[in-house]
Automatic annotation (TrEMBL):
It comes from Marinovum algicola. SMART domains: PKS_KR (SM00822). Belongs to the short-chain dehydrogenases/reductases (SDR) family. Residues 7-201 form the Ketoreductase domain. This is NAD(P)-dependent dehydrogenase, short-chain alcohol dehydrogenase family. It comes from the Bacteria.
């Protein structure tokens, strides 16, 4: 008996990396899995290849599990609904969604084009909305269901050259929390996970300086299978967790803070711009966040 016995889960971007690890672990835990993947490059703009998703299905079936491939694009409203329909047609139900599909268009902000911004927002943020929304009526009707949305420390903390990606991922954090609020009355849960794993999504990180090379070597130790266990746990009926933001970094699991007021400044007569500059900013200065990047915060070797 696995923790996901009798459940059906749709995993997007499930042919490689974290998505594949999640799909396989879901199957190992007893779930039937819709393995969605376009089979495109990291940029997501070339010809689709069905083979990677089919290979994951074959791997799951070889270990005695149930799976079906789907090759739709999360960026398409119609394709997202077709993914959910694939689960219903093949397995008769849909119980969980793992929004993992992604792409990258890394470039410094002052050089970023509209297409480079829209392409990343369209897959990560809009794609996560499309698939989540497609499953929502079924979750509501059956009074149960789970969402796991992949976010990133690129949004939670920051990284160079990823304005589009970080904005999309922080949008996903907010979306996950608000889905949890809206769907709570129907017994539906939603959480976000920041995965630390060496996959195609992080293999483009620069390794030109000694410091960058050291960071990359550390990242290569992070295996996607470690992320999968957390995703399964959050999706399991035995869990009641909702509206939270987690991180998974090899054998470490993090619970991230969510924005709350740190300091307050008040004056009976109201604030002028001059008074804010002279009094409020100096008062708050010790609590200002530095311009850290993810690598500045996670400085220790993964365990």
């Amino acid at each position: 008996m696995g923790v996901m016995d009798g459940k059906v889960v749709l995993v997007t971007g499930a042919a490689r990396g974290v998505g594949k690890a999640v799909a396989v672990e879901m199957a190992r835990a007893g779930a039937a899995v819709v393995v969605n993947d376009l089979g495109v490059s990291l940029k997501g703009d070339d010809t689709s290849d069905t083979q990677p998703a089919e290979e994951v299905v074959a791997e799951i079936e070889a270990m005695g599990g149930r799976a079906v491939a789907n090759f739709g694009s999360v960026a398409s409203w119609d394709d997202a609904h077709a993914m959910v329909q694939t689960a219903l047609d093949t397995f008769g139900q849909i119980d969980g969604v793992v929004n993992n599909a992604g792409n990258l268009r890394d470039v410094l902000f002052h050089k970023m084009t509209e297409e480079e911004f829209d392409a990343v927002i369209g897959v990560h943020l809009k794609g996560s909305f499309n698939v989540s929304r497609a499953a929502a009526p079924h979750f509501k009707m059956q009074a149960s269901g789970t969402y796991v949305h992949m976010c990133s420390t690129s949004g939670l903390i920051g990284n160079l050259g990823q304005v589009n990606y970080g904005a999309a991922k922080m949008g996903i954090v907010a979306m996950s929390k608000l889905i949890a609020i809206d769907m709570q009355r129907f017994g539906v849960r939603s959480n976000a996970v920041a995965p630390f794993a060496w996959t195609r999504m992080v293999s483009s990180i620069p390794a030109e300086t000694p410091e960058q090379q050291k960071r990359v070597e550390g990242l290569k130790k992070l295996v996607p299978e470690k992320v999968a266990a957390l995703c399964v746990a959050l999706s399991a009926p035995a869990s009641t967790v909702s509206g939270q933001v987690f991180g998974s970094r090899n054998n470490e699991i993090y619970l991230f803070s969510q924005p709350r007021p740190l300091r307050t400044a008040h004056t009976a007569e109201g604030w002028s711009p001059e008074a804010i500059i002279d009094r409020v900013f100096p008062q708050f200065e010790n609590d200002f966040y530095p311009l850290h990047k993810s690598g500045d915060v996670f400085t220790w070797d993964p365990v």
